[in-house]
Amino acid sequence: MARSQKRSKRKYTGKKYKHFGKKRKRELASPPIETTIGTEKKKKQRVLGGNYKLKLFSNSFCNLTDPLSKKTEKTKILRFEENPASKDLSRRHIITKGAIIHTEKGLAKITSRPGQDGIINAVLIKE
Questions:
Q1: Which residues make Cβ contacts (< 8 Å) with residue 83, sequence separation at least 6?
Q2: Are the C-beta atoms of residues 106 and 78 closer than 8 Å to each other?
Q3: Which of 1, 4, 35, 40 could join 114 in a cystine, given CB atoms 3.0 to 4.6 angstroms apart?
């Protein structure tokens, strides 16, 4: 069965809304992209309006910005630290915006949305 972003069939009270309109392609939701650390794997996907999203499934490098020196460079990701968004994502080592990773320069926080931007951008966290 397809995932939908359509309004719920029921109100918060439990009463059913009056049915009108069938399913539309624009209401279709895509499955979540669960980015992990590994060899680079991307996919280009056309979305509504003829635009494109780059889906990043795995990568072992990130663009790391040092807030003190204001310099950005490509850095290797050594390991996953934690994902405060969810215990489940943290357990499965899935990288989303806000996740914390360990790089060659130190701990960093993800600032991009890898599942939609197709790239991992991070900011160095001072310890």
A1: 89, 90, 94, 95, 96, 98, 99, 100
A2: no
A3: 35
pTM of the full structure: 0.82
pLDDT, tens digit (0-9, with 9 covering 90-100), for 36-92: 999 999 999 998 889 999 999 999 999 999 999 999 999 999 999 999 999 999 999
Cα dist. 86→16, 63, 83, 122 in Å? 32, 24, 6, 19
**Cα(9)–Cα(17) distance, rounded to whole angstroms?**
6
- Is the Cβ–Cβ distance between 104 and 123 less than 8 Å? no
Which strands, in side-by-side order, build the sheet including 36-37?
36-37, 52-59, 41-46
- The strand pair at 36-37 and 71-82 is best described as unpaired
> Using an 8 Å Cβ cutoff, are 125 and 111 in contact?
no
Query: Could you tell me if 48 and 24 are in contact, meaning their C-beta atoms sit under 8 angstroms apart?
Result: no
